[in-house]
Design goal:
The protein has about 325 residues and is α/β, with parallel strands linked by helices. The protein has twelve helices and 16 strands. The strands form three sheets. Strands 3, 5, 6, 7, 8, 15 and 16 form a seven-stranded mixed sheet that branches. A six-stranded parallel sheet has the order 11-10-9-12-13-14, with helices on both faces. The longest helix has 17 residues. Belongs to the zinc-containing alcohol dehydrogenase family. Quinone oxidoreductase subfamily. InterPro entries: ADH-like_C, ADH-like_N, ER, GroES-like_sf, Mito_Enoyl-ACP_Reductase, NAD(P)-bd_dom_sf.
């Protein structure tokens, strides 16, 4: 079977290659899935480049989230069967077939497209878990940067469903209309002079409880400066590639708290019932159209290097997907 392999860490467009590998056999509690479409996430690219918190043994098959049709089930799997269409995370899913935990495989209703199903879990689950992590409730104001990213969009949409008010910061003027097309409101471009005053006008001066920072660098300090007393700043990503730059006076006089968020560490600590409820909320919201998962381009598996290059480009309006 075809698999997207990397034998060294580096630029994904340079080190990824499609090679033939043996068909994997599902072990106890696993399912084998014929990949239909897979998402290319930022953490996938960082993993291949050797810059992520997880470094697989090399050579490795890339990819962590996909959808497809169950092809075989392992011992002890009773609730799933061959032929079912599912979304499932699993290491090495940029391949014709991949293995996944049967417990984590999500059966898909017909109302969810393959394109949405390929990105159904990781980013939306991060967004929902972030909302719980910051402790935001109905009527609270929160603020996020990188709002036009996959997590940012989902965060804004799920917050709206829960009655949480969000100021959505973007770095390009064009991104304001992109988010408006998805029904996302209160979008502010930080490229505009006086954007902090615009934030104040949007909130009416109400305190902002928490900020979600996916950029780092000076953007972290900008976000912190908008928070109210005892505000929480959550570091979620580092798109700028720069360390967080925070004002000591904002930290001290606001009695602010800074925390890091990594779903890979948090998800395993969630009670099974809570995780199931979160997944159910995602499926319902995507199936109903309340949460939209955008797609930028779709590439064939054989063009994985081109797909990785496209996924790394700035200004995309949605996910780059790989089709099996």
């Amino acid at each position: 079977m075809r698999s997207a392999i990397y034998s060294r860490y580096g630029n994904p467009a340079d080190v990824l290659a499609v090679e033939e590998r043996p068909l994997p056999e599902p072990g106890p509690g696993q399912v084998r899935i014929r990949m239909g479409m897979a998402a290319i996430h930022n953490h996938d690219l960082l993993t291949v480049s050797g810059q992520y918190g997880i470094k697989p043994a090399l050579p490795a098959v890339a990819g962590t989230e996909a959808m497809g049709t169950i092809d075989a089930v392992g011992e002890g799997v009773l609730h799933l069967k061959a032929g079912q269409r599912v979304a499932a995370s699993g290491q090495g899913c940029w391949a014709d077939y991949y293995l996944a935990s049967a417990a984590g495989a999500v059966p898909l209703p017909a109302s969810i497209s393959d394109e949405a199903a390929a990105q159904l879990i990781s980013m939306p689950l991060s967004a929902l878990t972030l909302l719980d992590f910051i402790g935001a409730g109905k009527g609270d104001w929160v603020i996020q940067n990188a709002a036009n990213g996959a997590v940012g969009k989902a965060f804004a949409m799920f917050a709206r469903k829960r009655g949480i008010r969000v100021v959505n910061l973007v770095r390009r003027d064009a991104a304001v209309s992109e988010l408006a097309d998805l029904g996302i409101e209160d979008v502010v471009s930080t490229s505009q002079d006086g954007w902090k005053e615009t934030v104040q006008a949007i909130t009416g001066g109400a305190p902002i409880k928490a900020g979600v920072d996916g950029v780092g660098g000076s953007a972290s300090g900008d976000l912190l400066s908008t928070l109210g007393e005892n505000g929480l700043l959550v570091s979620f990503g580092l798109m700028s590639g720069q360390p967080m730059q925070l004002s000591a006076s904002d930290m001290v006089f606001k009695q602010a708290v800074v925390k890091g968020f990594w779903l890979a560490k948090i998800a395993p600590t969630l009670p099974r019932e809570e995780l199931t409820n979160l997944i159910g909320e995602i499926v319902q919201a995507v199936a109903s159209g309340e949460v939209q998962l955008s797609v930028s381009e779709v590439f064939g598996l054989s063009d994985i290097a081109k797909a990785a290059a496209a996924a790394g480009e700035a200004g995309r309006k949605g996910k780059v997907l790989v089709q099996g």
